[in-house]
Amino acid sequence: MPQNLLRWRTVLKSPKRVKTLVNPLAALPTEPGSLPGRRSHHGSERWTRSSIPPINAKIADPARARLSHSFNRERIASMTLAIREASSDDLPGILAIYNDAVHNTLAIWNEQPVDLANRQAWFEARAQQGYPILVAVDASGVLGYASFGDWRPFEGFRLTVEHSVYVRHDQRGKGLAGQLMTALIERARACGKHVMVAAIESGNAASIRLHERMGFVLTGQMPQVGVKFGRWLDLTFMQLQLDNQAQPPAAITPA
User: What are phi and psi of 61, to 5 degrees?
Assistant: First the structure.
């Protein structure tokens, strides 16, 4: 064993000197797959030969290296992710996500894509109603978006909204939909809404499970009420009660 390492292990045995030591291995290059130093009985790290990061870690353990790199990428992405109110500058990204869902999924029961003017009109309508459009963004652009609108266009349903959440195809399965929904539910409560409704294609088990985790309960099944890609579609209704008001607020009377 090199003499400097022998001295390092020896001096750690003296608790009086632990606080003043500088780790001589700190300058060594590290690679994914290296092992942390072991703890001594004084609570300081004991650096042994097994603690030294292997120079050829990528070659010696490529599986661990890939896992480490993947974890670091996701950690960096989560640090740069932001969920905020959408602006008109986000509409091209929202449009791309919407049309991808139209072409390739059963999340939207339309078969014809829309243009930017369509999303602009939708954006303005939400603003006039005082309803939010939230986007999840990072350096690559819009990763997903969420919004809600009136469930039905009658006064008696004024305290109930139906929401929608869409995630970019390369970001699905990373928990982004849940983050958007959490923020959206808080917005609905802030608007004084009582119930949030989810209308989900019945074969979308992942979405149904997500809504269950968010507290939604199953309230209805409607077989073959839709059609897309040449087949019948079933609709599942779920809902979340947003408050515990025993009585609804008084109706707003016109002046």
Answer: -140, 70
Dump pLDDT digits (tens) for 77-103: 455 899 999 999 999 999 999 999 999
Q: Residue 200: exposed, middle, or buried by beta-carbon count in 10 A (0-12, 13-18, 19+)?
A: buried
Contacts of 205 (CB under 8 A, 6+ apart): none
Q: Alpha-carbon distance 202 to 226, whole Å?
A: 11
The residues, any chain, with a CB within 8 Å of residue 153's CB and separated by 6 or more, are: none
User: What is the C-alpha to C-alpha distance for residues 196 and 194, in angstroms, rounded to an integer?
Assistant: 7
Kindly report, residue by residue over 134-192, the tens digit of the pLDDT. Answer: 999 999 999 999 999 999 999 999 999 999 999 999 999 999 999 999 999 999 999 99
